[in-house]
Specification:
Length: 447
């Protein structure tokens, strides 16, 4: 059984130095107990305390960082088997495969297109993170040149795929600054690849023919002092791959088996003959329990739903998805455009903003913080009352952007009209439709 936050706190130096990234030693201890922090983050912990805490503080699935800077991606770090128990914390990284024999011009074109793939949702910028460069000719110069091109011309982090030491070494020399993932150490090359990873301080993937055959390989890498490990049980048949993912997570979380307590990498691109099926498989492994999924290509119709699925799965189920309180411009509203107010539940925002866009009527959309509750629920909970909405309208600054003083409220909040009129005596309060689907007709009729 793991130590509690207080038990861990008693073993820490108590300096509150903040060098671990947390404001106090107690906060750090609580995050260690929850599996959200690493003991190595504390620069002053004693050797004796380190021995006592090392096993207790590490999450069942070790977190692994790939890449550097603002685009670095962290996978793993999971502490539970099921999302409803707590939350999943290390979003599955999405990668596309590139063969090393690709032409330079074709690669540059791909990178140009892929670099532009990003989608805004709930105030977040959603995008894929990785490119997997696969060695197909064992040509070290060719492989290194393509790796260097990707590292320098793209914002993507790298997976270097080769089982040849010389080829891998050449690519590491020109891409080390990107902190790429080495793929893959196998039974045949584990000594050489383990040394490459250790000497260059890089994360490494290990590949075997089954989950059972992974164990001696991960144990050997651990004995070499390597911690940042990604595992591939080698299954390329969808059913077996799914079974392996479940077995690995259960062994790590339930049985505390450290030998398989690492994030996994999966290759839907090697399990299907077309991108549509790859996408379905990738969606399965984002839910159960892939650390990285590798596709044969990035296409909007495949990528966007995977990013949205990932966002939903790796959001705390105990906290609703929200958007920030404030003024949102839908279209290009001016001083005469209508003003609508609604709640900050993310689904409410996207439905309402989508219907406003469909109306082709530029509109000011005011989003009030209701702690993620929808309009009707927020009203019932007293978080969308006339007084609160009125105060929000006053302080948000919308009055400085418009000439009129007309405010449209959701039909489900019609009961707040009286209070709102008292709080905003100079404003005309208009009750809009109950259903967002009726907004386009409502707005067009008011033009």
């Amino acid at each position: 059984m793991g130590l509690t936050g207080i038990q861990i706190f008693k073993l820490l130096p108590g300096t509150n130095c903040k060098e671990c990234g947390y404001p106090t030693c107690l906060a750090f201890a609580m995050n260690l107990a929850a599996g959200k922090a690493e003991l190595d983050q504390c620069p002053y912990v004693s050797d004796e305390a380190r021995k006592k805490l090392a096993e207790a503080s590490a999450p069942p699935v070790r977190p692994v960082m790939i890449g550097k800077g603002v685009r670095a991606v962290k996978i793993g770090g999971e502490t539970v088997e099921y999302r409803h128990e707590k939350t999943f914390v290390g979003p599955t990284a999405i990668a596309a495969l590139v063969n090393s024999d690709i032409g330079e011009d074709e690669l540059k074109n791909k990178l140009r297109v892929w670099n532009a793939f990003q989608y805004e949702r709930v105030g977040l910028n959603l995008r894929p993170e990785l490119i997997a460069l696969k060695d197909v000719n064992r040509n070290r110069d060719e492989f290194a040149a393509k790796a260097k091109l990707i590292a320098e011309l793209s914002e993507f982090n790298l997976i270097l795929m080769s089982e040849n030491k010389d080829v891998m070494e050449a690519a590491i020399k020109v891409t080390k600054f990107k902190n790429p993932l080495i793929y893959a150490a196998t039974e045949a090359n584990i000594d050489d690849f383990g040394k490459l990873a250790k000497d260059n301080d890089l994360p490494i993937a290990v590949k075997a023919e089954s989950v059972e055959k992974l164990i001696p390989l991960t144990e050997k890498l651990a004995e070499m002092g390597l911690k940042n490990i990604v595992i591939d049980p080698g299954s390329r048949e969808p059913k077996q791959a799914f079974i392996d993912q479940v077995a690995i997570r259960r062994a790590a979380v339930r049985q505390k088996n450290r030998a398989v307590g690492y994030p996994t990498i999966l290759f839907p691109c090697e399990m299907a003959s077309n991108l549509d099926v790859e996408t379905l498989l990738a969606a399965t492994f984002i839910a159960k329990y892939g650390g990285i999924v590798v596709l044969s290509d990035f296409q909007p119709e495949s990528l966007f739903p995977l990013l949205i699925e990932r966002l939903n799965i790796f959001t705390d189920p105990q906290r609703p998805m929200t958007v920030s309180e404030g003024i949102y411009e839908i279209g290009k509203p001016d001083e005469n455009s209508p003003v609508i107010v609604t709640a900050n539940f993310a689904l409410t925002y996207f439905i309402v903003s989508g219907e406003i866009e469909a109306s082709k009527v530029p509109t000011w959309l005011l989003i009030k913080d209701t702690e993620g509750l929808s309009v009707l629920t927020a009203w019932a909970a007293g978080k969308f009352s006339g007084d609160d909405v009125g105060l929000f309208v006053k302080r948000c600054g919308i009055a400085d952007k418009i000439k009129h003083k007309e405010l449209i409220i959701p039909g489900y909040a019609a009961a707040i009209v009286g209070e709102l009129e008292e709080e905003l005596p100079d404003w005309k309060i208009i009750v809009g439709p109950r259903e967002a689907a009726h907004l386009p007709a409502f707005l067009r009729a008011r033009k």
